[in-house]
Amino acid sequence: MTTFTSLKTRLPWIQAPLIANTPMSGVATGELATVVTRAGDLGQIGYLDDMHALSKELDSTTKELKDIISTLPDPDQLPIGLGVNVFGSQIDAWMRLFATYKPAAAWLSFAGTSEMKAWAEGIRKLSPKTDIWVQLGSVQAVMDVAQACHPDALVLQRTGASIVSLIPETANAFQKLEIEISLIAAVEIMDGRATAAALTLGASGAVMGTRFLGAVESHIPQIYRDAIFSASDGGQSTARSRVFDEIWGPNF
Ligand SMILES: Cc1cc2nc3c(=O)[nH]c(=O)nc-3n(C[C@H](O)[C@H](O)[C@H](O)COP(=O)(O)O)c2cc1C
């Protein structure tokens, strides 16, 4: 496990506590990533399967963040994360993207340990300063990926049990490993109280998806945003589904 300080060493523009928007495919574009990074957090661009469109997005984000980039110790670092839905993605095309834009973080989802390893090694070879973040939901998967890929951060999100048990159990398991990895909490975090709780449980930062759908910079239809704002009694009005997991492939 690591502290905020080690995250800040690698992401020098961030302020405590680390907050990031999740790289929601088609929703978290450069526009959202730009405002989140400008706020002292980690803005992330979501997965697109159109490499041309993604390159354009990365070009415009690089221009928008020029002033922040000029303050960084490494002017080649693009101060955003880039989401990759690994399963079914063409590794060569993505590696060219990482080599060209050098995002500060790569958020890898939806793949087994051996695929994650291949992607982590490929990215590190071409863009050594890109932090590898892997999204996972079980202690077993965390231990496997931690030892095989040595990621910089593991994003822990509930699949069965909530992060209330997943983070402490993972943190305990980590004490046996001599590897420095940041634990980041995900799912159902909506405000400062939940972020504080995640930090208390042992996370070094928090990521939010749904919370950022309320931001006008997220690319969703207004009717979708209105439905989120008008929802109440979340425990009852939230339905859990594995539809995205089934669409995208393996999710551990
Ligand atoms: C609209 C939307 C799109 C998403 N797209 C992706 C995606 O492409 N890849 C991914 O790894 N996770 C994706 N996620 C899941 C988030 O990464 C994250 O696990 C989740 O949003 C966290 O829970 P929260 O929404 O309660 O904050 C998406 C989530 C939402 C709400």
Give structural notes.
This protein is of the alpha/beta class. It has one domain: Aldolase class I (TIM Barrel, Alpha-Beta Barrel). 46% of the residues lie in helices and 17% in strands. The protein contains 13 helices and eight strands. An eight-stranded parallel sheet has the order 1-8-7-6-5-4-3-2. Strand 6, helix 8 and strand 7 form a beta-alpha-beta unit. Flavin mononucleotide binds next to strand 3 and helix 10.
What descriptors fit this protein?
single chain; 252 residues; alpha/beta; TIM Barrel; 13 helices; globular; binds flavin mononucleotide
Briefly characterize the structure.
This protein is an alpha/beta fold and 252 residues long.
What is the topological layout?
Elements (H helix, E strand, L loop, with lengths): L3 H7 L7 E4 L8 H9 L4 E3 L5 H14 L1 H4 L8 E8 L5 H11 L1 E7 L3 H14 L4 E6 L2 H11 L3 E5 L5 H12 L7 E5 L5 H10 L3 E4 L1 H4 L8 H9 L3 H4 L5 H6 L4
Parallel strand pairs: 1-8, 2-3, 3-4, 4-5, 5-6, 6-7, 7-8
Flavin mononucleotide binds next to strand 3 and helix 10.
Number of strands: 8
Q: Helix coverage percent of residues?
A: 40-55%
CATH superfamily membership:
Aldolase class I
Structural class: alpha/beta
Here the CATH topology equals TIM Barrel
Portion of residues in beta strands equals 15-25%
* Poorly predicted tracts of residues: none
* Annotation field: number of helices: 13
Oligomeric composition of the shown chains: single chain
